[in-house]
Amino acid sequence: MRKLYLLLFITCLFLMAFQCEDDAVSTQETEQQDLLVSKKAIEDLAATSVCNDSFTCKFIALGSKPCGGPWGYLIYSTSINIEKLENMVAAYNKKEAEYNNKWDVFSDCAYAMPPTSLKCENNICVAVY
């Protein structure tokens, strides 16, 4: 009977060891979810910005299309921590480019036009195309 319990215990340990390895493997879906969480954090930070006579409106390229270039442009003002935002965007863009290469993602290859100008309306930066 002891041998049976010992064999069962060893078998459980063996199966648990392989289960841990499977958890460490990322999938396309988990990586895509990570990208969405990062993008939401970036957009949330930019959304806290306000514009007025003291703060200037700006934009930054956001995302990495598989064919090259950004998916679009994020509008924000200098009222937030710009260095933090720029670092978050750079990390996100790099991570998305790596994701695109790893998973052979494709897109329409259309060029996203940057805003021609920005204006402040009701303390919110607005892009003009």
What does this structure look like?
With 129 residues, this protein is α+β, with helices and mostly antiparallel strands. The chain is 50% helix and 17% strand. The radius of gyration is 23 Å and the shape is flat. Residues 4-8 have low confidence and may be disordered.
Mean pLDDT: 89
Helices and strands, in N-to-C order?
HHEEHEE
Structural class: alpha+beta
Largest sheet: 2 strands, antiparallel
Q: Nearest-angstrom radius of gyration?
A: 23 Å
Number of helices: 3
Which labels suit this protein?
129 residues; alpha+beta; two-stranded antiparallel sheet; two-stranded antiparallel ribbon; 3 helices; 4 strands; 50% helix
Furnish the topology, listing elements before pairings:
Elements: H1 2-24, H2 28-47, E1 57-62, E2 72-77, H3 82-102, E3 117-121, E4 124-128
Helix pairs in contact: 2-3
Briefly summarize what is shown.
50% of the residues lie in helices and 17% in strands. The chain is of the alpha+beta class.
